[in-house]
Design a protein that fits this description.
Layout (H helix, E strand, L loop, with lengths): L1 E6 L7 H15 L3 E6 L21 H12 L2 E7 L7 H10 L6 E4 L4 E4 L5 E7 L4 H6 L4 H14 L2 E8 L7 H18 L6 H15 L1 H25 L2 H6 L3 E2 L6 E2 L1 H6 L2 H7 L1 H9 L7 H6 L1 H36 L6 H19 L5 H5 L1 H23 L4
Parallel strand pairs: 1-2, 1-3, 3-6, 6-7
Antiparallel strand pairs: 4-5, 8-9
Helix pairs in contact: 1-6, 11-14, 11-17, 12-14, 12-17, 14-15, 15-17
Length: 397
């Protein structure tokens, strides 16, 4: 494991430096190759003075830093939190080092970018003069989110751990000794891999789901009626006592009990179709990972790829609109919720918001750089689709 520790504290004799040293010691003790960069000791201009950071000449220390980042498999940022964010020189280091052409490559005409640091992992260790719970709950971790989302994720680096240590002010010798020992153990663990078993499994499942999302969705739609029939048969053959145990009650004059669980099963088609935009668009809205070398070699090939991507995106929009109409019709004509007009308006409004979000600025590159908002809207649409049926089978009905 090749680990690069980036110390962002302005003083080399600080407690943050001691944390970085302990991490370094622990990782080396387990056989990892470890290098360390103390940002305070580098000689460089922290200001971006050219129109494009890529066009500003790098100082020798920054060239060495870029080489170390390229060499590393895992990056460790250790810094104190100043005014909720990063120290000034560390911010300047990031501005000057994570430059276009090194950390990422944008394709404005194609509406995408290439993440040049893809495959690397990172973790963040920051010290605070406030309780970590306050920084997390009241301030929403602005420095952590800036580094994790706006810098590392944008360049393709996955953050596997963020450790908040504090409050440093007023801490005892025992507290500091415990924090130092914790980072030594963390370094030892990272020497054997940055991702935990759960993170590796989640990454593999997510990657498989994105690659085969349409196949999975069609399979779910195809198998859902069979599962519903099977569940209905099992529930209807249960004794009244067993039905009561799972929350149901026998209907007056009926020979078999009708359970609440059976009624809730009717909501599954609406929820599944409501979440279709999320599954179908999760991959289409991600930035286009275009090959710079292929673009130079065959511009016509890249042009055709962009056209194909645009067609797929438009097809996803049509599918989203169809899902909206289908779910609205399902609630209105199949589940008979015409009496509850406000519920139907909720479904229609949430679906219209989703569809509008997808259609606005269709050819604008920035739309695809932030797919999270659209996916969240699609999930909210799915929830709005299932709520009316649950209410119909419960208190409202």
């Amino acid at each position: 494991m090749r680990i690069l520790v980036i110390l962002g504290h302005p003083r080399r004799d600080s407690f943050g430096a001691a944390l970085a040293d302990e991490y370094h010691t622990g990782a080396e003790a387990e056989g990892a190759e470890v290098r360390c960069i103390a940002v305070s000791e580098l000689q460089f201009d922290p200001e971006v003075r050219s129109a494009d950071p890529e066009h500003q000449t790098l100082e020798p220390d920054l060239e060495a830093a870029q080489s170390a980042i390229t060499w590393a498999e895992h990056l460790v940022f250790v810094y104190p939190t100043f005014w909720g964010g990063l120290p000034a020189k560390l911010k300047g280091f990031i501005d000057r080092t994570f430059t276009p052409g090194f950390a990422f490559r944008s394709f404005p005409d194609a509406g995408g970018r290439r993440k040049l640091l893809r495959g690397k992992t990172a973790e963040i260790i920051t010290t605070l003069d406030m309780p970590p719970e306050v920084y997390r709950a009241r301030y929403r971790r602005p420095g952590i989110e800036e580094l994790r989302r706006a810098v590392l994720r944008y360049c393709g680096v996955q953050t596997t751990r963020a450790r908040l240590i504090g409050p440093i002010a007023g801490s005892t010798h025992e507290d500091r000794a415990e924090w130092l020992l914790e980072q030594n153990h963390a370094g030892r663990r990272r020497a054997h891999g940055a991702r935990s078993g759960l993170q590796q499994s989640a990454r593999a499942v997510a990657s498989f789901a994105v690659r085969h999302r349409i196949t999975l969705y069609i399979g779910a739609v195809a198998i859902l009626p069979l599962l519903q029939q099977l569940a209905s048969a099992v529930l209807l053959t249960l004794s009244p006592a067993a039905s009561i145990l799972i929350g149901g009650a026998a209907e007056p004059g009926a020979g078999a009990p009708r359970t609440d669980l059976l009624a809730h099963l009717q909501a599954l088609p609406a929820a599944l179709l409501g979440w279709a935009p999320a599954m179908l668009l999760a991959g289409e809205l991600l930035p286009a990972e275009l090959s710079e070398a292929a673009a130079r070699r065959d511009p016509e090939l890249e042009r055709r790829r962009r056209i194909t991507s645009e067609r797929r995106y438009r097809a996803a929009l049509w599918i989203s609109g169809a899902a909206l109409l289908w779910v609205f019709g399902l609630q209105l004509f199949v589940y008979g919720l015409d009496r509850h007009v406000w519920l139907l308006l909720l479904v229609l409004a949430s679906g219209k918001t989703l569809f509008n979000e997808l259609t606005v600025h269709l050819r604008t590159p920035e739309t695809r750089f932030e797919p999270e908002r659209v996916v969240v809207l699609a999930l909210l649409f799915g929830c709005a689709c299932i709520i009316p049926t649950l209410l119909q089978s419960g208190a409202v009905g």
